[in-house]
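Lab notebook, design round three. We kept the backbone fixed and only want residue identities now. Task for the bench partner: fill in a sequence for the structure below.
Input structure tokens:
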């Protein structure tokens, strides 16, 4: 299991749902379980409903946790998406 604090740098392009939906798509590319933690909430990054239940904004710090056979690849791809998609 690996965890990393990441500062979000995503441009929502006037659609707050799109970045969340794309993050769920990225997370679902991997076998590993992936979770996003914001303050005291921890949600499954592969669940669109879970991700919609938290509010994350550009510049906010979140903790990503990945656990499984491809956790390093999952973490790398998710970090890339969250920080280089502006």
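Proposed sequence:
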């Amino acid at each position: 299991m690996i965890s990393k604090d990441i500062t979000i740098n995503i441009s929502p392009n006037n659609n707050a749902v799109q970045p969340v939906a794309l993050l769920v798509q990225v997370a679902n590319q991997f076998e590993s379980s992936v979770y996003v933690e914001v303050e005291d909430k921890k949600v499954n990054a592969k669940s669109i409903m879970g991700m919609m239940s938290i509010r994350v904004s550009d510049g906010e710090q979140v903790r990503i946790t990945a656990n499984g056979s491809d956790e390093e690849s999952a973490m790398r791809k998710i970090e890339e998406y969250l920080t280089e998609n502006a």
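Keep this in mind before ordering anything: The longest helix spans residues 71-84.
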